[in-house]
Amino acid sequence: MIEETIFSKIIRKELPSDMLYQDELVTAFRDINPQRSLHVLIVPNRHIPTVDDVTSEDEAALGRMFSVARKIARDEGISADGYRLVVNCGEHGRQEVPHIHMHLLGGEDVGPMLNRRN
Ligand code: AMP
């Protein structure tokens, strides 16, 4: 079992965060280093390190992450203009925190999906 990360402590409220939502499956809080006007992280409460560790038992939590992203986008008033959801996985995906998280980015045009190679 890979050691839990700072996100587990945020989920258990042992560390402070700007938490927007929590239920029995997922937690959402503002990113500490926002990359766009709105930058929220949505995480499963259970410690799943990466997408590569997902099992069928996680499907309810992973599905809930999308419906919570939609709710937060509506609550924050950005749903009509659109937004981006990003999930990084592992080294090549440049995942920094090994606890699955969905980035919700918006409040402005977030730009092209990836830097073009050519
Ligand atoms: P990733 O590169 O996909 O693993 O993204 C990790 C994200 O976690 C980054 O956007 C960080 O700014 C964010 N982050 C790290 N520590 C915290 C924290 N204590 N509270 C909120 N966001 C955090």
Structural features:
single chain; 118 residues; alpha+beta; five-stranded antiparallel β-sheet; 2 helices; 5 strands; globular; binds adenosine monophosphate
Overview of this structure, please?
The protein has two helices and five strands, in the order αβββαββ. The longest helix has 17 residues, at 59-75. It has helices at 6-11, 59-75, and strands at residues 19-22, 26-30, 38-44, 83-86, 102-106. By secondary structure, the protein is of the alpha+beta class. The chain has a five-stranded antiparallel β-sheet, with helices on one face. The structure holds adenosine monophosphate (AMP).
> Whole-number average pLDDT?
96
What ranges have pLDDT less than 50 throughout 5 or more consecutive residues? none
Count of helical stretches:
2
Any idea what the radius of gyration is? 14 Å
Which structural category fits the helices and strands?
alpha+beta
- Main sheet? 5 strands, antiparallel
Unique ligands = adenosine monophosphate
Give a short synopsis of this structure.
This protein has helices spanning 6-11, 59-75; strands spanning 19-22, 26-30, 38-44, 83-86, 102-106. 19% of the residues lie in helices and 21% in strands. Bound molecules: adenosine monophosphate (AMP).
